[in-house]
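Q: Protein A?
A:
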Amino acid sequence: MKVDHSFGKEKQPGSLCAEGNFANQLLGDLFVNESSVLRPVLNTDQGLNVTLQITLFQVIHMDERNQILTTYLWIRQMWADAFRHWDKDEYGGLDVLLVPSSYVWRPDIVLYNSAEDQFTSPMETKVVVRHDGRVTWDSPAITRTSCKVDTSSFPFDGQWCPLTFGSWTYSGNEVNLLPALDGAELSDLVENVEWEVLGTVTERNIVLYGCCSEPYPDITFTLALHRRPAFHIYNLLLPCTMISSLVPLSFYLPADSNEKVSLGVTILLAFTVFQQMVAEIVPPSETLPLIRKYYIAPMMMMTASTALSMLIMNIHHCSPESKPVPSWARVVILHHMARILLVRGVSRNCAGSTEAVKSDGHPKAASGRWLREEEEDEEETSGQKEPEQLLSNTSANCDDAWEEVKVDRGQGSCRSHCPPHWERLVRNIEVIRNSLSHQRETRSWAAEWRKVARVLDRLYMWLFVLMVISLSVLVMVKAL
């Protein structure tokens, strides 16, 4: 016992055989002497309305590099056949007949913007012929269409991809193409992991080509696609953000570690690798994608930071023959900027520098508190406290001896009790004293230059922190 729910009543096996006989009879009456080549109209001057409807089943792939969209569609075409209709009462109530598509005339509807290597005909599915002459032809198709990809906001971009259908041979006077719905049917859509279909827009166009005077209608279904950015955020943006955070930290490294330039070159290589990955995904265009701008900006920042690191290392490792820090740099960098940037030890060491500087810009040989603090700071940084302390004590003893010699020579008492080689001893002491004074001066100059390097390091670090934060905020605002 078989139940046909379409009719809502039971059918006996005998009735099924009777229905099969009526179908064979109807097939012979309708298609034996009828041609499927010409348009099924009574008058050749009469136009035939063809209704087109598509159902988007799946967005298979979007090839941004080649700008090709691959989709899976169900295409439905409907028209009225003036020669294939019957009275269903004469054929046992049979109102629908399924026949091969080659038995009836079919409109030559093609996809205008197809990107296939070679054109293929639609799948040979059966057509549904109703008793009133209405013909419905449903056929599936996997289409590859050209789609102009705009990657200026990649990976937060959206694309508009058209699917344009039209008759290749018949003009609008012969086949009038009409849309069945306002858009493509999306009820059976299979979700794509990368692209989200926001909707479709249907537009009917009448085109006049230069070869022909007749109008040619076409229907364009435009798919509104939006990229799901989670994959690219985790694999491209987050690594770039973490690597960018290392750019300002390169200025936090001490200049004595000799790793500042190596870190900068390593970060540049990492950015280059990610840049190549993006270049393989995004097609070449005149407008740079957002993510490439996000990569280029930190690369420029890293290049500038590497160059500045070289400058700071050069300042830090000033030779003893270098000149002292200019007075404007001592006031601006070592005094004001050091306080603003909270660089410890610089403002304390430079507290008495104005009183300890001669008119020619050189520090005095014995400058009291400032010189002792400079020597203490030098001892802490170099780790050689005992030799420096010995040198300072020796210098102080020589200074005291020189003062006693000057007093004795001034009072004239030296001639009575001084040995004969006293003058030569005095000259030697003066040479030693001048040498130690020069060493103290060069040490104080080198210490000041190292402090200048520390202040500039801290300044550039905060500048690059602000640049990285501003760049990340701009990218997120652009994405939203």
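Q: Protein B?
A:
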Amino acid sequence: MSTFVKYFLLMCLCFTFLYLSFNLRNLQFKPRSYKDKMDIADDSNEQSTLAAAEGLLLPRGTQTAQADLLPVNKVEHPMEKPSRPHIVFILADDLGWSDIGYHGNAVHTPFIDQLANTGVKLGNYYAQPNCSPSRASFLTGKYSDRNGIQHAFRDGQAACLPLYHRTLPEILKQNGYSTHLVGKWHLGHCREECLPYNRGFDTFFGMLGGSSNLFSHISHGNYDFWDQNKRAMKYKGVYSAEAYGEKAVEVIENHANSKNENPMFLFLSFQVPHEPQQVPPSYINKWKSYANVKPERRKKLFGQISCMDEVVNKVVNSLKHNHLWNNTVVIFSSDNGGPFRNEASNIPLRGQKRTHFEGGIRVVGFVNSPLLSAEVQGKTFNGLIGIADWFPTFIEGMAGGQTDRVDIDGKNVWDSLRYGTPSPREDYVISVGEECLGVPVRNNTKYWDTMGIDPRTSIRSGPWKLIVQQDDTDPSTKPADVLLFNVDLDITESTNLAEENEDIVRRLRQRVKEYCSKTVPIVSFKTKHFPKSSNDNQKGCQLDEKYVRRGN
């Protein structure tokens, strides 16, 4: 080989080596693109910051999926996002513990019974003693002492659920849900800002107050039946429960026909079996056994409940017919126990609506869904659950959102319900009462007559139930009684164990006092105001500085 050829080959090798070295170096130190960074699993901090800037509420977890960073109005591909179920929450009004078929009563509720018996029945499920406080706890995730609602709103009252609360439908909407209220509101309506469609619901159909004629829909001389902000006059003479069923089916069909890939939240809020005891005769005449029910008010109560049962069946059938059922969770609940004046029965529980005994606050409830594991279907869950728990259960457990920005008392119990794991809740506070005031309330005009503060203290903790009665409305107790029951062993609350368990009484009273610093002013108790329309005479509504939205 000539010297020239050897020299030429050597030069080629040198150039090849230099070329490869240069390009390998460029490949090794090439800056990563923004998209490359998003694909890295442990870049969660940067992704969370970007998502927060977009106003998204992200699911809990150690890392964030790229799909979570899409703009709020961007529709994700169905196969790329977790399946968020449709949520249907059905609330009965003043339903007694034993006034349901599956609790052994003679009332006919075959459809509700089937749902309960194939779902998960709630054995230790608590609400507030009356209407508005339960609804407020449900929609805010807070105890009544923390949301300002300790009493039922009076029709025409110049106050409403304080506007600084972020409500359940508001946050569900931010997580992609359409939100609908069909039925009873009962959380104040004296200003446009107070009305359901300004508190997170896309649509509202129903009544704003607490009670009205079930056919004429007249309450205190006013027609209280609305479709958004207009009176729904065509429903005059239509039984309210039937009208609510018709509208609920319409909401379901509209959602299905819209081909909306996002989920739906439907709050179906009945006025039955609340007074007045009115019902179409067909719901009484249908069942021969009702002919022997006495007195007449109880017979009508049975008819109301049977009507509600048939409406629930129509709603479930609509979900199935519109191919939504397989990804739907249905929750059935009462807002409180049954009142004796309506001939309601809470047997074997002691007490009634407005009392802090089990008959006033332990309520009928169950969950049914194809999403429940086979191991829990048809069983009773005896873990402790409260009505405030639906707030984080829906948002965190079902919607995949967060409640970190909202100061709540509720616990996410979705895994407990669908898998049967222990409840994350150890206790449930019904009322802090005088424990936080340090002064008697019952005979103190400043606190009772003006502010409407419930003087009673009550808490359920493990098997124990403490009531510091401070109330003379129950003839079986003295106003100053301190009552302690083991409700796991004594469901009738017949044996007061306070004297022999003073350490437990002290512990539970101290537990209640831990909430004292978190209580808020009670919404005005005795003010009166009923607007003739949603925009009339709004100056009477209590919306001063302490009720201005504070962002949490």
